[in-house]
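Q: What does the assembly look like in three dimensions?
Context provided by user:
Components: two
Sequences:
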Amino acid sequence: MGFFLMSPTIAVMVLIIIVPLIIGLVMSFFNYNLLTLHRGIPFIGFSNYSKALGDENFWMAFWNTLWWTAANVAGQVALGLSIALLLNQPVKGVGIYKALILIPWAVPSAVAALSWMWLLHPEFGLVNDIAVRFGLVSEPVAWLGSPFTAQVWVVIARVWKEFPLSALIFHAALQTIPKDLYEAAEVDGAGVWKRFWNITIPYLKASIVVAITLITIWTFNSFNMIWVMTKGGPGGATEILATSIYKTAFQRYNFGFASSQSILMVIFLSVIIIFYLYKVEGKKID
Amino acid sequence: MYLSKKKRIRRTLLVHAALFILTFIILLPVLWMILTSLKPTAETLKFPSTILPDNPTIQNYLAAWRNMRLGTYFINSLYVSLMTTFVAIVLGCMGGYALARFRMKGEKAYVMFILVTRMFPAVVFLIPFFIMMRNLQLTDSFTGLIISYTVFSLPFSIWLLRGFFRNIPSELEEAARIDGCTRFKAFTRIILPLSAPGIAATAVFCFILAWNEFMFANTLIMSDSKRMLTVALVASISDFLVKWNELMAGGMITTIPVIIFYLFMQKYITGGLTEGSVKG
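A: Here is the predicted structure of the complete assembly.
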């Protein structure tokens, strides 16, 4: 009975998940591109892989992805935790803020990216407006036009979009802390920091691990914000693995090479996924 | 509480002030999108900007709907998202119920598999999907897009629904079956009504997932008339002259349905977002 109910789902999952993954894996061993497509596609073994591993651009995208991920994790955890701590204060009427800070998460990432492009517009953007008004810059800056500022702003834009999730995770965890623990500590004369380090952090540890791993995985995989805002530019400064692979496949039509890179990307990622499965989910699936 | 009243009031004020300022900064990009969408074009080309529109207008919304043909794209997105949701919910109910109620061989492996697929980069699926869809002549078709969205929404819905079904005591079903109900009847009469809010929440998540998607829609759909909303908006920034006020109006049109869903489903969002990633 159980199997009968499962079978359509399993069939669909095999067709749309397993089969594509196998096709992707197989393609990575072939010189599958626009030129070879009509003359027969030659098998080339691990050539795509060695080409990728010896490719300067691939490693640049790899390091960019690491920085992009690290900055996102730091930003999202810091902002999410601060907001969650504020929301958790025993104060009336904070519920409305909880609803409002979710809004960035609701904005489709393509729209979020567009609205950030408009905020950062080199001539009429609000960011330039504010920066000029406060005398931070003397004239409008093309923020997405130079490598460093572009790298910083794509991170800010994505942290803005994604932090509500970690705020929610932390808020949920904070609510499990018994309130009388704080009161007892306060009576014993423990200050705010002491209470934070000795009560809040130990209780949050598990969800911080969860948040960090999930944000790491999702940021590592992310594509939309950077693609819309910079397309990996300027000069590859914001090129991450996802955008680089996408370009190889759909702008240069080198599907075999792109597949090998995407398999490598999964291999890098699997380190984190395995950590996550063992540390977090493994315990819960009985 | 051992806090004096004065101290408590001070704390309340401080927390509210901090939250108000933070929330304001966080909402600024959205507020700016709204304000821009209400400005006539001339006002968007001013520097320093007029913060509030001098002559607010809803003309941009009409222009976006008609000139940018967002009406067509809205219908496209709606159709694809609804169909994806339908497929994910029907199959998800079956799979989720089976995983919640039956002991099966390889169950643990299957659950792991569902989890892992949710963590794979989309581009890994996109390349083989593009090739498969081209061979099946399903590129540039809504069907192809719906099938590929199922990759992400189905594991998600199975996972969520498994959790919802598990929360319903199986004694209820057993009682019904003793009274002569078939398992299917017990499912439709007892499980479905009891888990209706959970199913609705799952449906909303699947809908939003499809509605917000960009990468697959950008790659698998070629013809202009079949574009999804998100892709159409992004495509318009390569125009020679970008009308940011109309574009922001288009952004609002794309975002508003999602926010409406949010307001209705707020209670489930916290659980749903973190379910399967935090809770078991």
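Follow-up: Chain B touches chain A through 96 residues (CB under 8 Å).
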